[in-house]
Amino acid sequence: MPYPEEAQGFMIDGPANWTSFQKRSFPLKPFGESDVDVKVEACGICGSDVHTASGGWGPMHFPLCCGHEIVGTAIRIGPKVTNIKQGQRVGVGAQVYSCGECKQCKNNNETYCPNIIIDTYGSKWPDTGIISQGGYSSHVRAHEHWVFPIPEKLDTNVVAPMLCAGITAFSPLVRNGAGPGKKVGIVGMGGIGHLGIMFAKALGAETWAISRTRAKEADARKLGADGFIATSEEGWDQQHRFSFDLIVNCANSSRNFDLARYLSMMDVHGRWVSVGLPEEEGQIIKAQNLIDNGVLIGASHLGSRKEMLQMLDLAAEKNLGTWVETIDINEENLKEAMLRMKKGDVHYRFTLTGFDEAFP
Amino acid sequence: MPYPEEAQGFMIDGPANWTSFQKRSFPLKPFGESDVDVKVEACGICGSDVHTASGGWGPMHFPLCCGHEIVGTAIRIGPKVTNIKQGQRVGVGAQVYSCGECKQCKNNNETYCPNIIIDTYGSKWPDTGIISQGGYSSHVRAHEHWVFPIPEKLDTNVVAPMLCAGITAFSPLVRNGAGPGKKVGIVGMGGIGHLGIMFAKALGAETWAISRTRAKEADARKLGADGFIATSEEGWDQQHRFSFDLIVNCANSSRNFDLARYLSMMDVHGRWVSVGLPEEEGQIIKAQNLIDNGVLIGASHLGSRKEMLQMLDLAAEKNLGTWVETIDINEENLKEAMLRMKKGDVHYRFTLTGFDEAFP
């Protein structure tokens, strides 16, 4: 058979055994006229993979193959595909479908489609009931709108995490005006945060890294940060009162987080946008904490195709790359990587490699 | 003495006796070169007066004279005053001073001044330590920036509540783009909310009143509402999913308030702006509730001088007026009005009158 109707991937059976990966076959959704099959060559390990696999975000469809920071080769192109050419190097991020017809989809808000959102893994395709599966695998199948040509200058392993972590940081930056003359903060220097610093700087904003301690200050400066705030230090918020236009909160926990102090650093009507989805119960917000500066609090979900292409172009133009540790995909390495991710022990992203060997 | 150095007002001694008003004298701050003395002719009764007097917002300076929806005559003009003429009919709202020098003050954000905000009543003037006192009184003294000429067409008693309730609704509307092509909701049909409906419509927005029951629907329609949502009805949120550009939340309690359902009605990156300051402990907000539509949550505090003048002009141009019940100022009437305010038993604002008789 020239084209796969199923793929192979490293799957887990549920949160009880969330680091126990098994290589298995799984069905792909029926190939549609606008679909693209991608043979996977690299895949980042996202914080979402850990939240999902370990059950922190609640029940999911198992067995499950995670992975949504995918780069590979387009090996099959549906007859109606116009964005992608066969043989092209492409990326796939965390979403593979939306309705495409609604106001939001037509308005570059397809990651907020109210009608249907199919995540790259763990969503049920309508009609068939097939569960979407991610990029710890031989192949993924996606609607062409969600498949992105990768500029030649970008290295496969280095660009892979940009497909989710990168766009997650980039979209709220461009949607909220990060650029020259603006003071932008990035809270949390993990996979998303380190790319946030890089992009905020590349977009021309005065860029501040905000972290608990100064342990990552040197890295932050290398990534382009103009300033560094350590929230374990006395008076960290006082000297920045009423000054930030935008803070993108990339922290993936809200525990011990004194939101009011962060908000006090915002300029009038500045924006505090969270991109992490902490597993905790949320934060208590009083109108009193918002009223001194009329700050706006929001959240952001991935980014549009348009923004994805813009981000990749910017990365190519300015030689930006994820800081990655590569690791060959197999049962043992996946287990180790997941455990290290859980501890935050990676600077700042794993990219899985060696797919040819794992899926010969 | 041609000019007063003290004023008389109806004061309360503290939350324990918050409806027990006593007519007393109190000192005015020393008259400054940019100050204006206003002889009070009408004063609205604001929800803030009730929150403050009854102790719901915490400790205050007592004895206290409330009232910050003031209309009267400018009887004395400091030598540096340029905005106001002696003898002119003017209004004073809920704030009487800010630093005037900082970025915020110079940028029409003087109600968010980080350096100093003197509320019309209950704030301590620097240097003298004199507590500012409000408009249930014979006179108020304010910096000219906070004294607003009242257009001739507007009736004194009807315009008074616009000085706080009106600007509180108007500022978030204009700052967040309420106008033609926008769908705007107003939650809570009280003093602020009924003016919010009126102004949203006058600004050209598709205007929806949002209330618990349909009891106030006829009033809402008269005020200009294009639509009405009753949150006690089944599925009230479903039919408005992803549709509101802006909702101004004028409810003054957050009890039993299922915020996630309200937020689900917002268009992508729509704004939910609260103007009430509920006495409760705040609401738990999860990033998960914000991420489906990337909604922004904020709060708003009064409005700039520029917006105040714009609002008064709009009211004059479109014949807009607060719906008021007038009541002569005296001990008994104040007690009754405060108790009725506490129950929400007024459609939709009290304006105190009869100042000449009370302060001969």
From TrEMBL, chains A, B:
Catalyses which reaction(s): a primary alcohol + NADP(+) = an aldehyde + NADPH + H(+)
Domain Alcohol dehydrogenase-like N-terminal: 33-152
Residue ranges constituting the Alcohol dehydrogenase-like C-terminal domain according to the UniProt record: 191-316
Top-level lineage group: Eukaryota
Cofactors: Zn(2+)
Enzyme Commission number(s): 1.1.1.2
Gene3D superfamilies cross-referenced by the UniProt entry: Medium-chain alcohol dehydrogenases, catalytic domain, NAD(P)-binding Rossmann-like Domain
Keywords for the protein's UniProt record, in alphabetical order: Metal-binding, NADP, Oxidoreductase, Phosphoprotein, Zinc
Keyword NAD: no
InterPro entries xref list: ADH-like_C, ADH-like_N, ADH_Zn_CS, CAD-like, GroES-like_sf, NAD(P)-bd_dom_sf
Record-level Gene Ontology MF annotations: alcohol dehydrogenase (NADP+) activity; zinc ion binding
GO biological process: alcohol metabolic process
Subunit structure of this chain's protein: Homodimer.
Family affiliation: Belongs to the zinc-containing alcohol dehydrogenase family.
Annotated PANTHER family: ALDEHYDE REDUCTASE
Protein name as catalogued: alcohol dehydrogenase (NADP(+))
Upper taxonomic lineage: Eukaryota, Fungi, Dikarya, Ascomycota, Pezizomycotina
